Amino acid sequence: MKCAWIAWLLVFVLSDGVVAQITFDCPSPQTGLANNPFLIYCVVTSDGEEVPNTNWLFNSVIVPNQGDRTTSTMNGLIIQNLVLSDAGDWVCTGELSNGFTDTVTVRVIVDDFPGPPLNLALETPTTSNVLVTFDRPEGSEPLVLTQWIIEYRASGDDAWTTVTETDTDVTEFPISGLVLQETYTFRVAAETGAGRGDYSQEVSITITEVTTPPPTTTPPNPPQQTFTPPPSTAPASLANNTETSPTIGQQSGDPQPVLNSILTIVLGLLAALIVLVLAGVGVYVWCKRSRRRVVCQTQDTAKTPPA
C-alpha cells in the first residue's frame, strides 16, 4: 500500500512538469472566391485531452469569434462574404489552460473574375505581324491572374482564333501569320482561378505592305588633320640674303644700251660744235646721223651745197 502511494505521487510530479504540445492542421495558402462564404480551414488540437482555445488576428487586429462577418468553429474561421481586401495573412493562436500558446499563419488568396484589360492597341504592323499591347484590368492588383486570352478574327469570319499567354507579368505580345490586305479585329481578356473575366474593347487593323527604309548609317568622323603652314618665303629684301640690293643710280642687267645713249649725245654735241666753227669761216657743213654715229661733211660756201 505504501509502494502504490509512492508510485502515484511520482507520476503526479512527473506529469506536472510535462508541457502539452499544440498541433495545427492549417494548410497554406488557401483560395476563396470573392463575394461568397469562405472557411479558413484550421483545426487546433493538443497532445492531451484539453482542446486549445483559439483566437484570430488579421493585419494585427483581433478578429471577433462571433462577429457580423466571422465565426470561429472547431474547423477554423468562417468568413460570411469574402472580399478582395480579405486577401493576406491570417494568424491563428492556440492557448491551453496552463498559459502555453502557439501560433500559425495561413495565407488567404481571394479569387474574383477580373475586369476587362485596358488600353488595347495594335502597334508596328508588318506584312504578316502585329504587336498587341494592353494594360492590366483596373483593381486587379490583389488578384492572381493565371493567363491572358488574346482573340482575333478576319473580317467576315464568325469564329475567333485564340492565343493564350501564361506570363501575366507581360502585357505585349506579337501575333504572326496574318494575311496581307486583310482586316482583323482583336480583343483580350484576363483569367484567374475564378474564371475568365470580361473582354476588352475590340480594336481593328488592316494589314498592309510595309516598306522598311534601309537603315541610315552615320559616316565615321574624318580624322582630325593638323594644318602645318609651309615655310615662310619672305621677300629678298626681308630674308637673310647675302646679295646687296642695287642703290639708286645703279642699273642692273646689260649696261650697253646706256653707254650707247651717252655716246650718241656726246657725238651730237661735238658735231654741233664743229658746225658752228666752220660756219664762222664760210664753210657749209651738213651732217648725217646713222644708228650709232653722226657723219659731217664740209664744202666751200661758194659752191652749191649738195642736194
TrEMBL record:
Residue ranges of domain Ig-like in the record: 40-107
* Domain (Fibronectin type-III): residue spans on this chain: 116-215
Please give the superkingdom of this protein's source.
Eukaryota
Chain intervals with Pro residues compositional bias: 212-233
What are the Polar residues biased-composition ranges? 238-254
Pfam family membership, one: fn3
> What SUPFAM superfamilies does the entry give?
Fibronectin type III, Immunoglobulin
According to the record, the segments passing through the membrane are 262-287
Please give the name of this protein.
Protein sidekick-1-like
Please tell me the species this chain comes from.
Branchiostoma floridae (Florida lancelet)
